[in-house]
């Protein structure tokens, strides 16, 4: 089972990466729980792959100009396309996802996320921007035909308090709830139609014969 984490934080370190790490830890902990029902999919979990979009910013821009991703960007695209589940985290700028975050998903094939479970999350300076997850980020993945978990996790600046308070505890609860929802989708979803189609290989001769006009 392959879990890919896409994080669009621009600084090093960033609260966006911190939120991505907490979500990843919560999901992998639940996937590794021996008491959790395994469902119809394989239980083996590959170490999560983290894609830092700040490292691919120039590659993404070049892909728009040339029409072709370079090898480093292609590796990231392939990882997302082949993933069983995705955690996608973006900072919120001007009431929406970051341009880098949107640009990365723009270079994906429009069928790459079809039927794929996705947990969406975001960070921002104030809780007033929390609805950006619902009016901007969720519609983006709905358009890409991903299966987005019901709980979207937003972390404002005040959520990173050092002690146990209402804000910090509330963030922890949202993280655990979203992680549980993503884990349930990963463990219980049926094999995708894409995977079933990939198992059927039609010989090239048969493909040519189908193109010939009838005698």
From TrEMBL:
<dbReference type="InterPro" id="IPR005025">
    <property type="entry name" value="FMN_Rdtase-like_dom"/>
</dbReference>
<dbReference type="InterPro" id="IPR029039">
    <property type="entry name" value="Flavoprotein-like_sf"/>
</dbReference>
<keyword id="KW-0288">FMN</keyword>
<dbReference type="GO" id="GO:0016491">
    <property type="term" value="F:oxidoreductase activity"/>
</dbReference>
<dbReference type="Pfam" id="PF03358">
    <property type="entry name" value="FMN_red"/>
</dbReference>
<keyword id="KW-0560">Oxidoreductase</keyword>
<feature type="domain" description="NADPH-dependent FMN reductase-like">
    <location>
        <begin position="1"/>
        <end position="160"/>
    </location>
</feature>
<dbReference type="InterPro" id="IPR023932">
    <property type="entry name" value="CE1759_FMN_reduct"/>
</dbReference>
<dbReference type="InterPro" id="IPR051814">
    <property type="entry name" value="NAD(P)H-dep_FMN_reductase"/>
</dbReference>
<keyword id="KW-0285">Flavoprotein</keyword>
<protein>
    <submittedName>
        <fullName>Oxidoreductase</fullName>
    </submittedName>
</protein>
């Amino acid at each position: 089972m392959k879990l890919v984490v896409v994080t669009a934080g621009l600084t090093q370190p960033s609260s966006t990466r911190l939120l991505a790490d907490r979500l990843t830890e919560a999901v992998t902990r639940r996937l590794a729980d021996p008491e959790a029902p395994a469902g119809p999919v394989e239980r083996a979990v590959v170490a999560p792959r983290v894609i830092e979009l700040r490292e691919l910013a120039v590659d993404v821009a070049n892909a728009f100009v040339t029409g072709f991703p370079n090898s480093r960007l292609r590796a990231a695209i392939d990882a997302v396309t082949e993933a069983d589940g995705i955690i996608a985290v973006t900072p919120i700028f001007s009431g929406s996802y970051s341009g880098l975050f949107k640009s990365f998903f723009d270079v994906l094939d429009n069928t790459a996320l079809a039927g794929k479970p996705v947990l969406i999350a975001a960070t921002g300076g104030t809780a007033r921007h929390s609805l950006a997850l619902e009016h901007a980020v969720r519609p983006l993945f709905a358009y890409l035909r991903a299966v987005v978990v019901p709980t979207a996790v937003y972390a404002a600046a005040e959520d990173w308090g050092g002690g146990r308070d209402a804000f910090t505890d509330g963030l922890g609860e949202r993280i655990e709830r979203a992680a549980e929802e993503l884990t349930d989708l990963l463990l219980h979803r049926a094999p995708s139609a894409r995977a079933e189609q990939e198992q059927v290989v039609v010989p090239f001769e048969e493909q040519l014969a189908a193109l010939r006009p009838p005698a």
